[in-house]
Amino acid sequence: MSCHVVHTAKPRSNSCLPWAGSALFGAAMGCVAWSLTVWARAYCDAGYDAGGRFELNFLLPLVVGAEALVGLAAQAIGRRLVLRAPTAVRVSLPTVLVVVATVWPAWWFFATRGTLDGYPGDSGLCPVSNVPPQWPDWIPV
């Protein structure tokens, strides 16, 4: 009778965990972008009429799905770039690519669909740019 030792500390190279994490992170960024967009429109009351809410609800699965696909694509590109790289680069580059590739479209979606510049808002709480006053000044929209 023989005993086999299983090494669980070292992840297998064919693990699906990075792929699932990339897709979930992308989907989460899509949810964050959509939530920020809804919040900005509702707070400023710009584009939050029945048609605007329908548009946002229609875009929810599209934004979440697109961000998940962006996360997967960034993971694939990152893994392709680091085939013969040192271990630190092999681990960090795909992660950095996934974060950058999913945060940028989320920010773009909020900036273009959430803050409707020049749209007449009825709440009186926001400037003409329809950027809520709580939005940090150091993050451009």
Task: Spell out the key features of this protein.
141 residues; mainly alpha; 3 helices; 62% helix
Helix-strand blueprint:
Elements: H1 17-44, H2 50-81, H3 87-114
Estimate the global geometry from the Cα principal axes: elongated
Strand percentage lies at: under 5%
Radius of gyration: 20 Å
Number of helices: 3
* Multimeric organization: single chain
- Count all strands and give the number: 0
Distance between the ends: 66 Å
SSE series: HHH
How would you describe this structure to a colleague?
The longest helix has 32 residues, at 50-81. The protein has helices at residues 17-44, 50-81, 87-114. Helix 1 (17-44) runs antiparallel to helix 2 (50-81) and helix 1 (17-44) packs parallel to helix 3 (87-114). The chain is built from 3 helices and no strands. With 141 residues, the chain is mostly helical.
Give a short overview.
The chain is mainly α and 141 residues long.
